[in-house]
């Protein structure tokens, strides 16, 4: 009996099913896969499968219990950003000058306005140097080759948020734990290449593939513990700390503590290579511009639908945090809490706080809480909204083919577009599943895991058992498949 046929029976009796783990449920073999995972790992698992045509839950297990969502939090974040800003929204970074122009010299400043754009010189987009090229082109039109007053970054309304208030300490020195700001650059981390011997350390530093002068103040030790700053003149990167001996061009990604200052350094170096000298370090303007500005142009980001695809397909934490940060008002931006995202979904869907308590925009915090029921309602709202349906569905990677779910192997006759989430002890998947031209939303979360990879395998088995049971022999990679290949080789030899 196919799943569609079984659904009629399941739906007929669905009014009898309550959202508790102890109630009788359809598809017991599929659910047994999850219960076995709970037993082996000493973990908790939740799952909620919903028919999107009838809006009826088919399977619900611990659906009202709250779980740590990990990167599944990016679904409410990107969904709210898409709803509030629109698919065609672009971040706008104004570019201007102020001062006096004398020949090819601007006795004043190059001024850029903050927009919160997470994609400036991002590793996830082509043409990382586009901002530098556009600024250089604008200055050259005015005949400017020298800027005596440096670069001024207007950060009014974009206060520096608290750095990872609710993130684990060990993540704060990792590239995926970089903070966000009103002005970001290169996903807010530098690429370092380290070479060390018994008494020397050499470091090459890059921001968005542009080599930046790099100084070192480190000593050789038995382990590597480094920090990244700027030199006192803010004209070079400074690598300090301890580094172990024997490194040979070892790659290390180091996050920025104050991204606008690194943006200023990157712009100065990039403009210098375009023949434009910026003579003094960058100034951060947080209160007032201090004079009139002549606008030269505006730098525009890619469209919002492209940016949310990067966020969900690549699980880009900086993008998600920037979206939550930008949606907050200027007072809310002082905290790293996604206040606007939380308020949007709680108001639209009447979500109880016990089932939706986000602590950040990306899901890196282990303290955020989300139930499968709440996340399922978010997925359904995005599916049913005519303006949001297509761009949000396109933002999710296809299982087995792309993004963070390219290695997740489900039965080949099932098509699924899902966001994955994983931090220590947590694994989850959520999105949409298509089976025989019928669509479902599916949410799976597991917490308290000793081995998150086992949850990935169990989820793949659960989906395949649910929609196709038993799977055909060719799906297995074990002895059955090997025997089939051996038989094919024998037949080919006989034909010869």
UniProtKB/TrEMBL annotation:
Annotated coiled-coil segments of the chain: none
Top-level EC class: hydrolase
GO annotation terms (biological process): peptidoglycan metabolic process; proteolysis
Pfam families in the cross-refs: Peptidase_S13 (PF02113)
Keyword Hydrolase on entry: yes
Enzyme Commission number: 3.4.16.4
DNA repair keyword on record: no
Keyword terms of this UniProt record: Carboxypeptidase, Hydrolase, Protease
InterPro entries: Beta-lactam/transpept-like (IPR012338), Peptidase_S13 (IPR000667)
Source species, domain of life: Bacteria
MF terms in GO: serine-type D-Ala-D-Ala carboxypeptidase activity
Recorded family membership: Belongs to the peptidase S13 family.
PANTHER family per UniProt: D-ALANYL-D-ALANINE CARBOXYPEPTIDASE (PTHR30023), PENICILLIN-SENSITIVE CARBOXYPEPTIDASE A (PTHR30023:SF0)
Protein name: D-alanyl-D-alanine carboxypeptidase/D-alanyl-D-alanine-endopeptidase
Encoding gene (name): dacB
């Amino acid at each position: 009996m196919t799943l569609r046929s079984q659904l009629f029976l399941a739906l007929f009796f669905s009014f009898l099913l309550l959202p508790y783990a102890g109630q009788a449920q359809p598809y017991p073999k599929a659910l047994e896969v999850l219960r076995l995972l709970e037993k082996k790992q000493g973990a908790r698992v939740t799952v909620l499968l919903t028919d999107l045509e009838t809006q009826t839950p088919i399977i619900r297990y611990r659906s009202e219990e709250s779980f740590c969502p990990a990167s599944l939090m990016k679904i409410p974040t990107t969904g709210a950003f898409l709803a509030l800003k629109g698919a065609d929204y672009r971040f706008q970074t104004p570019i201007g000058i102020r001062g006096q122009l004398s020949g090819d010299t601007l006795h004043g400043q190059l001024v850029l306005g903050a927009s919160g754009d997470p994609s400036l010189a991002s590793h996830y987009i082509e043409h990382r140097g586009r901002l530098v090229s556009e600024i250089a082109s604008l200055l050259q039109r005015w005949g400017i080759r020298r800027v005596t007053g440096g670069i001024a970054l207007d950060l009014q309304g974009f206060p520096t948020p608290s750095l990872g208030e609710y993130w684990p300490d060990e993540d704060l020195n990792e590239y995926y734990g970089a903070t966000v700001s009103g002005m970001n650059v290169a996903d807010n981390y530098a690429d370092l290449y380290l070479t060390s011997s018994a008494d020397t350390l050499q470091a090459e530093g890059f921001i968005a593939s542009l080599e930046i002068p790099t100084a070192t103040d480190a000593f050789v030790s038995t382990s590597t513990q480094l920090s990244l700053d700027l030199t006192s003149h803010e004209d070079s990167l400074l690598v300090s700390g301890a580094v172990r001996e024997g490194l040979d061009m070892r790659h290390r990604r180091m996050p920025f503590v104050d991204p606008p200052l690194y943006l200023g350094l990157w712009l100065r170096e990039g403009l210098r290579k375009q023949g434009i000298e910026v003579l003094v370090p960058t100034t951060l303007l947080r209160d007032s511009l201090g004079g009139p500005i002549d606008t030269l142009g505006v730098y525009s980001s890619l469209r919002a639908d492209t940016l949310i695809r990067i966020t969900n397909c690549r699980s880009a934490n900086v993008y998600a945090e920037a979206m939550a940060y930008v949606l907050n008002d200027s007072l809310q931006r002082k905290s790293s809490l996604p206040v606007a995202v939380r308020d949007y979904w709680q108001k639209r869907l009447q979500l109880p706080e016990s089932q939706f308590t986000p602590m950040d925009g990306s899901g890196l915090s282990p303290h955020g809480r989300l139930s499968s029921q709440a996340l399922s309602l978010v997925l359904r709202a995005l599916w049913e909204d005519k303006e949001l349906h297509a761009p949000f569905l396109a933002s999710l990677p296809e299982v087995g083919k792309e993004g963070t779910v390219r290695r997740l192997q489900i039965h080949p006759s099932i098509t699924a577009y899902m966001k994955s989430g994983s931090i220590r002890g947590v694994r989850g998947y959520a999105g949409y599943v298509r089976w025989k031209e019928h669509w479902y939303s599916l949410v799976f979360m597991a917490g308290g895991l000793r081995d998150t990879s086992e949850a990935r395998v169990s989820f793949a088995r659960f989906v395949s058992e649910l929609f196709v049971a038993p799977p055909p022999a060719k799906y297995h990679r074990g002895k059955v498949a090997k025997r089939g290949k051996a038989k094919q080789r024998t037949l080919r030899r006989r034909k010869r």
